[in-house]
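Q: What structure does this chain adopt?
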Amino acid sequence: MKIQYLGHASFRIISDMGTTIVTDPYKADMVGFAMTPVRCDAVTVSHHHGDHDCMDGILGDPAILDRAGECTADDIAIESLSSFHDDARGAKRGKNLVFTFAADGLRVVHMGDIGCFDASLASRIRGCDVLMIPVGGTFTVDARGAKQYVDAVRPGIVIPMHYRSAEHHFDVDGVDKFLSLFDADAVYDAGTTLCIDDRPEPPTRVAVMTRFVD
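A:
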């Protein structure tokens, strides 16, 4: 499996068979930079805000998945779990979908704009191989809230997302607060593309990714 970071909360997941999923594509003028145009078989949308559901950078005619439930895209089994975008059961920002992707003997979880800790949700995704989680706060869980999920879920690899970069318009924290909660030797630079051939062994490692530009 390959995972490419497209920026903000968007990733391209590519199975060994070539099936391709894009998560949460974003609007350039809302985030601060354009997503590189990509083709895919399906797009997952955690919620309908412009920084998570913009199809401007999506080529072709993929399926759009924006509801809770289960389905498959060729060799990738997909499940979406309902959650909340805030700590008030959706009263502030509405609902959020957490997507799980199973392929090539791996399970990848994309948390969308998760806004609070949910022990039941953490239990359902516990032991996943890759956890993509927002860490910037303000609109999502912050660094400590994200670390609470990591401690409960115990993924093989965690990829931080939805944090402030030099290009961002968003008033959220950078990634450093989250990284400071881990031992330095657990954090590594994964570049633009993370290739996973086998299930990662514990303990959890933090993969900091660079935005893929084609």
